[in-house]
């Protein structure tokens, strides 16, 4: 993979890099969506993996820069760290994200496919997965129909709170 607007240092490319900060991470998104395509359309497996695997090897070779020997470069075509100082000066988030997303994409065959309305289930958990302290399904059920008095009370409380927010905002601005 390559981002042609960013990789002027790559062999056979004499252009001046014109990419912005966001473009430095575009290979990450491409890798991720190629992996999702593989997962959702298994017939694309051979085509996609034939592109992801060599790119992953090249990305690993490009992640050998200093200061600690694990700084990732932007160009994966050189077979080594490309000396990209932009990545070091700015933290190299895009370069590292692209490499890590590509490595992670190679694991897509081991990941369960997303659930659908036909295959997945979704059950609420008021305790947010903590295993307790939540309300039971019975406690969450509405015990009686909503009455006109309930609606009037809600309207009054909404008006009071809205008025309080307005008055406090006015007080903060003008005092």
What distinguishing features does this structure have?
47% helix; mainly alpha
What does this molecule look like?
This protein has helices at 26-40, 45-62, 85-89, 93-105, 137-140, 148-174. 47% of the residues lie in helices and 0% in strands. The chain has a domain at 22-110. Helix 1 (26-40) runs antiparallel to helix 2, helix 1 runs parallel beside helix 4 and helix 2 (45-62) packs across helix 4. It is mostly helical and 175 residues long. It is built from 6 helices and no strands.
Q: How many helices in DSSP terms?
A: 6
Total number of strands:
0
Average residue pLDDT:
81
Uncertain segments: none
What pattern of helices and strands is seen along the backbone? HHHHHH
Please outline the major beta sheet: none
Structural class from helices and strands? Answer: mainly alpha
Helix content: 40-55%
Shape: flat
Distance between the termini: 59 Å
Determine Rg (CA atoms, Å): 27 Å
% residues in beta strands: under 5%
Multimerization status: single chain
């Amino acid at each position: 993979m390559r981002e042609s607007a960013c990789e002027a240092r790559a062999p056979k490319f004499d252009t001046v890099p014109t990419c912005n900060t966001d473009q430095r991470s575009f290979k990450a998104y491409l890798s991720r969506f190629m992996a999702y395509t593989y997962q959702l359309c298994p017939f694309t497996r051979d085509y996609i993996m034939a592109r992801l695997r060599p790119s992953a090897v090249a990305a690993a070779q490009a992640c050998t820069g200093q200061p600690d020997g694990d700084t990732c470069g932007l160009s994966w075509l050189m077979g080594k760290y490309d000396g990209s100082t932009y990545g070091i000066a700015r933290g190299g988030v895009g370069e590292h994200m692209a490499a890590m997303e590509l490595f992670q994409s190679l694991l897509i065959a081991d990941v369960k496919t997303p659930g659908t309305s036909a295959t997945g289930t979704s059950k609420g958990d008021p305790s947010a997965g903590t295993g307790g302290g939540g309300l039971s399904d019975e406690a969450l059920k509405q015990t009686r129909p909503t009455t006109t008095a309930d609606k009037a009370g809600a309207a009054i409380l909404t008006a009071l709170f809205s008025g309080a927010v307005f008055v406090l905002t006015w007080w903060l601005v003008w005092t």
